[in-house]
User: Which sequence fits this backbone?
């Protein structure tokens, strides 16, 4: 485990790749980013709002990442919904976000990891007529 004091994050080398766990985030996180170990030093759980995972399982690609959530009724309320990784015996891994959960065998899949940045993305909401804030 490497800690970078200038940027307030820890870089972990895990069985699925490099995972960053940052504590200096632009918005509050619903769960505090953390790393948990067993008493014997085995990695058990990672809660991160700084990394995303690309999973390739049987030629099907899935991306798991934290989410940036803005409350539509209170637009000033913005929070990050983190990505949680839980490591179990026999190379089992549970990947969960607010919206999805998946359990996989680490040996049967290919993983790649990347940094994740909290940013709003413009969507095509021409078909939407619910809020009216955008002028449609």
Assistant:
């Amino acid at each position: 485990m490497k800690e970078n004091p200038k940027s307030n994050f820890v870089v972990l080398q895990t069985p699925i790749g490099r995972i960053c766990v940052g504590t200096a985030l632009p918005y509050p996180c619903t769960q505090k980013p953390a790393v948990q170990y067993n008493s014997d030093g085995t990695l058990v759980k990672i809660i991160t709002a700084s990394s995303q995972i690309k999973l390739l399982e049987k030629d099907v690609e899935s991306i798991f990442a934290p989410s940036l959530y803005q409350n539509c009724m209170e637009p000033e309320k913005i929070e990050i919904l983190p990505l949680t990784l839980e490591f179990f015996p026999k190379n089992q891994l549970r990947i969960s976000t607010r919206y999805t959960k998946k359990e996989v065998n680490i040996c049967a899949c290919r993983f790649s990891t990347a940094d994740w940045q909290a940013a709003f993305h413009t969507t095509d909401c021409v078909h939407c007529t619910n809020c009216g804030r955008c002028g449609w």
Confidence is low (pLDDT under 50) at residues 1-6. The chain has one domain: 2-115. The radius of gyration is 17 Å. DSSP finds no helices and 13 strands in the chain.
